[in-house]
Amino acid sequence: MKHLIHIILLLIVSSIANSACTTSPPTIPETLSLDISPSQTTTPQIISTKIPSSPPTFTAEDDPAIGCPFANYPDWETSPYVLPFPVGKTYQVRLSNCSSSYHAEGKNDQFAFDFVMATGTLVTAARAGTVVYIEEKGISRELNNLVVVDHGDNTFAEYMHLKQYGALVKVGDFVEQGDEIGLSGATGLAGYPHLHFIVVEGSWQWPYDGVPVTFSNTSPNPNSLASNTKYTALPYP
Fold first, then answer.
1. Which of 35-49, 76-90, 212-226 has the lowest mean pLDDT?
2. Segment among 2-16, 45-59, 201-215 with least mean pLDDT
3. Distances (CA, A) of 168 to 128, 133, 142, 180
4. How far apart are CA 204 and CA 151, in angstroms?
5. For 96-107, what is each residue's pLDDT tens digit?
6. Among the four residues 20, 67, 68, 110, which has the most C-beta atoms within 10 Å?
7. Residue 102 gets which letter from DSSP?
8. How many whole angstroms separate alpha carbon 169 and alpha carbon 182?
9. Residue 52 DSSP symbol
């Protein structure tokens, strides 16, 4: 009897082993659907694709390349200054305030702007005032051609590196904002054609003291204009 039971058990084990060897592996679906209960769901993050209606406003803290970090810049929206070129024109600022070279922090031109302009480009008055000085005999680096405008409040605008005989005003002329000043060039310490513009106070003569200014007829510039950036002169506010 015990021998018969032993034979039966061997037959059962053999049958199970043969079944395991011939059974096909389970099918794995190409896609897997997870049943997530409401308690496990999370709110998806929504990323806005709306394009801003105006350029973002940057400060010196946001980007150290914009403005002198120690300066107190006047409100650009109510600034008495406009860009020193005609409405509708666009030019690049190569060097701005506290940037590098002669415009570096601590230099006399730390508040100056270099607008890249081809020789002969029209330069206009950034603010109304009286012309108090003109130099226009320079041909190249030996003499810096410029026009100086007195604003009547102890500040002066200086328009530099003009072409030879490029002044379009004379001493004593009163210019309104936007009036013609002269034609740009590359005289004096100019490595390329551009307008060197600065507002100074006290005295316009070198070594002068520049002051921080902003411009009311272009994109937001709370810490004035940025280097290596193009700006368009918009209609005066």
1. 35-49
2. 45-59
3. 15, 12, 21, 6
4. 11
5. 999 999 999 999
6. 67
7. G
8. 7
9. P
> How many angstroms separate the CA atoms of 44 and 36, rounded?
15
User: Across-strand partners of 133?
Assistant: 148
pLDDT at 144 over 90: yes
Cα 115–Cα 164–Cα 160 angle in degrees, nearest 5: 35
- What CA–CA distances, in Å, run from 35 to 41, 44, 90, 187? 10, 17, 59, 76
Cα dihedral sign, 28-33-39-41: positive
- Alpha helices for the chain (secondary structure H): 2-22
Q: What are phi and psi of 10, to 5 degrees?
A: -60, -40
Half-sphere exposure of 182 (CA within 13 A, CB side): 32
Question: What DSSP string runs through 99-135?
Answer: -SGGGSTTSTTTT-EEEE--TT-EEE-SS-EEEEEEE
The answer to whether 130 and 147 are in contact (CB under 8 A) is no
Domain range list for the chain? 76-232
Predicted pLDDT at 237: 93
Helix (H) or strand (E) holding 181: strand 180-184
Instruction: Tell me which amino acid residue 51 is.
Output: I
Both tokens of residue 106? Answer: 């601590």
Cα 111–Cα 117–Cα 122 angle in degrees, nearest 5: 100
Both tokens assigned to 23: 């059974």
Whether 126 contacts 175, CB under 8 Å: no
Q: How far apart are CA 233 and CA 124, in angstroms?
A: 11
| CATH class entry, domain 76-232 | mainly beta
| Residue corresponding to tokens 């002969």 | 120
